[in-house]
Design brief:
With 609 residues, the chain is mainly alpha-helical. Strands 2-1-3 form a 3-stranded mixed β-sheet. Strands 4-5 form a two-stranded antiparallel ribbon. Strand 1 and strand 2 form a beta hairpin. Helix 5 runs antiparallel to helix 6 and helix 12 runs antiparallel to helix 13. The longest helix has 42 residues. It starts with a helix and ends with a helix.
């Protein structure tokens, strides 16, 4: 409260004082409070206030007629209420003045020691029996305590109101949870998750009027009492939107509004405090809200710990982010990039590290489960598409260096992208916007693309793209030729299944790029089963060969006749180790058969051409 407001309050209190003070008895003491003057009488004040009684007693010899009360809580307005009480004038105790009355009662010592049913006991009774049983009134009292600290804290007014708010909010949510209980068809009691718990979080808007330090204490108490993380998150979102949009344009940085230092310091404190209050549970707050806080933290130059915490939280749920979320403006000097690439890189590193830890846990069960991939693999696919779109958005920036572009493209592991169309598009945009790149730099950036994983349309575009290096175009043409030959050879699968199976195995990497993850996983499992069957057949043939070898050695020791040699040749012919003995028609992977299959494929393709 500024000085001008204090003077106006003192003047209005003095005018009101003249209305209820005794006019027929001359005043014998003047009380000065924060610039306000009250002409009063000693007897009513001394009979109730221990402090004023002591001051009068100390100056009995000099017959004190003027007393200045320094640092009186509540100022002239609160003293006027206390003086009315001393004079026996009735007034109403409300949630708007009870905190002031408690504090000024302690300051003036209006306690039971000096008078029965004094102001202190009456104010305390109203606070405990009325205010603490109503959440809205507790919030109003807390708001009044903002100007009464630290005395309001010492009298435990703040603590009692905070505990009451947390208890009431917790009880409201428990009651709403009970209202969602219902019996199933089998007679069991269960929670109806589809029913919304409407009305249990009505206190969210009420708490937004509190100052940040008191709001922090309320939220901490609610967490300790077990209030739902979703409710905590909703309250944080509401409070941030109110506090961070009053004086600045943090949620719309393109506005370019200049912010004064006082507002900046306040909003920096708000952002850092809200980050410390965020629930640890995922999805407790929208990820767009986390990105909004991160933009604010970058622009307001919040602490490094605050920004790293936000980046870690965003990285743990990056798979649900959008491209608009990632486009964080750069608030540095004019020669920098349009968007904050370094921050996005740290977010991707957090995601990759979190994903790696998930993979270590799931490695043992990935290929044994019925699902085609672990949840972390699904996140990788989503984030890879997000990164490719982000690269395409930042690629036209003339100030974007190749090293920064490359570090974003290389952050995700190689298996994250099943199709490289998005990455190729982003690199093509970068090459078009940075035509001054050297040949070595163009080769470096094109090494990120696996041309074998390009779709047919992207491959056709890349084959005619003059911005690509010559080596890249050659790779594209080579893989396009393999794809064409594979397609032609597969068309003769009914006539000769052996070359078809061989060509499928050769080009399985190229085909996997165009397959969905589920189909790709199914084909890998099918191939794995076939390889296991082939290995089992080889083992059986090897065992038969070893048995025959033992028999041959035993027969050779008994007889060296030509008859035994002829029986030996017949036995070898019966084994037919390299023949087609499989009931399914599959062949053993020997070098001779591979060469034969390759020649058949080449002849077939040549005749087709």
């Amino acid at each position: 409260m500024d000085k001008q407001q204090q003077l106006s309050l003192a003047k209005s209190s003095r005018l009101r004082c003249n209305e209820w003070i005794f006019r027929d008895v001359p005043s014998d003491i003047t009380i000065e409070v924060s610039g306000g003057t009250f002409a009063l009488h000693k007897f009513p004040l001394v009979s109730r206030s221990g402090r004023i009684r002591r001051l009068v007693a100390e100056h009995r010899d000099t017959d004190i007629s003027k007393v200045e009360l320094l640092n009186l809580p509540g100022g002239p307005e609160a003293f006027e209420l206390a003086a009315k009480f001393c004079y026996g004038i009735n007034f109403e105790i409300t949630s708007e003045n009870v905190a002031q009355l408690c504090c000024i009662s302690d300051y003036l010592e209006l306690t039971e020691e000096f008078s029965k049913d004094n102001l202190a006991s009456r104010s305390e009774e109203y606070l405990d029996s009325i205010v603490c049983k109503n959440l809205e009134m507790c919030v109003q009292v807390l708001q009044q305590c903002e100007n009464l600290l630290p005395l309001a804290d010492e009298l435990k007014i703040v603590t009692r109101c905070i505990d009451a708010i947390a208890s009431k909010a917790c009880v409201e949510q428990i009651a709403s949870s009970f209202s969602r209980l219902e019996y199933s068809s089998s007679g069991r009691l269960h929670m109806n998750k589809q029913a919304k718990c409407e009305g249990s979080d009505w206190w969210i808007q009420d708490l937004s009027i509190l100052r940040i330090d008191l709001y922090q204490r309320v939220m901490t108490a609610m967490k300790c009492r077990g209030v739902r993380p979703e409710s905590i998150g909703a309250s944080l979102v509401s409070y941030a939107q109110k506090e961070l949009t009053k004086k600045s344009s943090l949620w719309n940085p393109s506005n370019g509004t200049k912010i004064d230092l006082i507002s900046t310091e306040h909003e920096r404190l708000v952002v850092e405090t809200i980050v410390t209050l965020l629930p640890v549970e995922k999805l407790a707050v929208p990820i767009s809200f986390l990105f909004g806080l991160l933009r604010s933290a970058v622009m307001l130059d919040c602490t490094i710990a605050c920004r790293l915490d936000l980046e870690r939280r965003i990285g743990s749920q990056l798979d649900i982010a959008t491209i608009d979320d990632l486009l964080i403006p750069s608030f540095r000097h004019a020669g920098d990039t349009l968007f904050d690439v370094d921050t996005v890189h740290r977010i991707l590193v957090n995601f990759s590290q979190q994903d790696d830890s998930d993979d270590e846990m799931d490695d043992g069960s990935v290929f044994e489960s019925d699902s085609p991939h672990s949840p972390s693999q699904t996140s990788l696919f989503k984030v890879s598409n997000l990164v490719d779109n982000y690269l395409a958005e930042i690629a036209p920036d003339a100030n974007l260096k190749l090293s920064k572009f490359m570090v974003i493209a290389e952050t995700l592991p190689a298996h994250a992208r099943t199709i490289h169309d998005g990455l190729y598009r982003a690199i093509d945009i970068y090459l078009k916007a940075h035509q001054g790149l050297s040949d070595s730099d163009r080769k470096r950036i094109c090494k990120q693309i696996d041309f074998q994983k390009l779709s047919q349309e992207a491959g056709a575009h890349a084959a005619q793209n003059e911005r690509l290096p010559l080596q890249a175009i050659v790779q594209v043409l080579y893989f396009e030729q393999i794809r064409l030959r594979t397609a032609l050879c597969c068309s003769y699968g009914d006539e000769d299944p052996k070359p078809t199976h061989q060509s499928w195995r050769i080009s399985s990497g190229a085909l996997s790029a165009a397959m969905s993850p589920r189909d790709n996983y199914a084909s890998l499992r099918r191939e794995n089963r076939e390889l296991k069957l082939e290995l089992a057949r080889l083992r059986m043939r090897l065992n038969d060969l070893e048995k025959e070898h033992v028999c041959m050695k035993r027969d050779m020791q008994k007889s060296h006749s030509r008859k035994f040699m002829s029986s030996f040749s017949k036995t070898i012919g019966k084994l037919s180790f390299f023949g087609h003995t499989s009931s399914r028609g599959s062949s053993s992977p020997s070098k001779n058969s591979h060469r034969t299959d390759s020649k058949v494929i080449e002849r077939t393709c040549a005749s087709t051409d």
